Each structure stands twice: as structure tokens, then as C-alpha cells.
Amino acid sequence: MSARPKITVAVPFPVHPPVGGGQRRVSEVYRHMAFDFDVELVTIASSDAEPADIEIAPGLREIRIPKSAAQQAEETRLEQEVGGIPVGDVGIRLFGVHTPEYARRLTRSMDDADLVVASHPYAVAAVPDALHRHLLVYEAHNVEYLLKKEVFHAAGATGERLAETVRRLEADVCRAAQLIFCCSETDREELRRLYAVDPTPVVVDHAHQTDILGPRPIAQRTALAAGEEELHVRRDAGDVEYQLGGVEVGRVPASHEQGDRLAIEAELDLHRLPRLG
Hints:
By secondary structure, the chain is an alpha/beta fold. It has two domains: 6-204, 3-Layer(aba) Sandwich (Rossmann fold); 216-271, no CATH class. It has helices spanning 21-33, 69-81, 90-95, 100-111, 130-133, 144-151, 156-176, 185-195, 207-210, 218-225, 257-271; strands at residues 6-11, 38-45, 52-57, 60-66, 115-119, 136-139, 179-182, 202-204, 232-236, 239-244, 247-253.
């Protein structure tokens, strides 16, 4: 058994091989996290997908569960009702009871996890009590309620009900999370406005847009895990170098300074969560 801390990530779509933007983001984010943690992505896929339990990078596994034929049929019916708008993500909350294997595998992965990440608010809804049994981080790819409200606008009363379901899911995850990662300052402020999540830390994470978090020698990882409170900045020949305890933890062009400082501080916040430092 590995001595490294373990992260379980609930993901509402298959990840490997990454094709779409969401898949690429998840793959890159957790490939980097796997330098320091054992990471299991527990994903759910369409009913015609093959189940899988595979290592997709060192320290990073994907456990992929296909939806049952019954769940897929219910989602297809609902998609037709709303004019062909995809509902596979919110369908996990509405019809996930038809795929009990996903809840079983997610629960099994979470049972020995040090940290659970909800990547989007949908997949973790398969195990409702997970929000309060585990140390939880919410990875907000968007402000899902506002996105779905716009997408379902033309779908009448059914669309309104689906958007409200998403709002409740997102509210529950935001309020249960000990840390929230989001992709922009605008998203951060909208999440705070909608769900009154202060004083929950809501961090804008630019790390994987700028790709500054690559493999690090053990001295750097030790400095990150040590929980140094101050991030030092040194400018050298047009570059910005970030240091913790005299150890370089990032070097980026000066033009990226603001976003990348936020990225490094975001990773420090994750390391400082209880039982992970």
C-alpha cells in the first residue's frame, strides 16, 4: 500500500484518452497532482463504453463505469423532451439510481481517500452523504447554474426544473467544500454571490492554463508540503521566480506574474488542508 496521501476525484465523463477541453483539463490537472498524491479518477461514461481500471499516468488511475441501459434510456428520453440538449451530467443526479455500480465504485475509492474532489457538481451526487463524510474540494470548471440556466432557457418548464436541479447541486457542493477552485475571478465572485460561501476559500487557479506545475525534485515538494506562509518573489532577466524556504517552486515570464502567483498559492492552499500537509 502506498504511503502517499490519496485523492479521489468524482468526474461526470470519461477522461482517457482526452479529446475535449474538460477531459484535457482533468487529465492535466491530476497528472500534475500525481507527482505528490495517489489519484483515482472515478468516471462515468455512456452505456456503450467499456469499463476500465487503468493507470493513465504515474500515480494516476481512471476507474471508468459505463451507465446502465436504463439510465441511458432515461437520459435519451429527457434529451428529446428538451430539444436535444445534452443532459448526461445532470442525468447522474436524476437517473443514477439505475447505475448502482458507479456509486459502489466511487464509495470504495472514497473510503480510504484523504481528500475527495468534486470535479463539477454532478458525479459526487451519486453518493449524497459524501459531501459531509469527507474532506471535500470543489473543482468548479464553470458557474454551472448560470451556464445551464442559459442552455435550458428555451426548453420551457422542463428546462427551468433542470436548471434549478443544477443550482441545488452546485449550492450543496459549494457549501460543503473546504476549498473551491475556479477558473476566473468572475466565477469566484458569482459563486460567492449565489451561494454565500464566505469564508470558504475560493481560489482562482490558473496553474494548468500556464502549465507551470511540472515535475519537481523532492526538495521542492518538501517545501510545498511544509506549509511556509510566505511566497517569495525574485525577478531575474525578465523572469519571475517564486521561492518557498529558499527553494524555487516556479519560474514564469514576467508577463504571467499575477496569474501564476495565484496558481502557486492555490497549490499551497491544497497542501495546507488538514491531513494533507
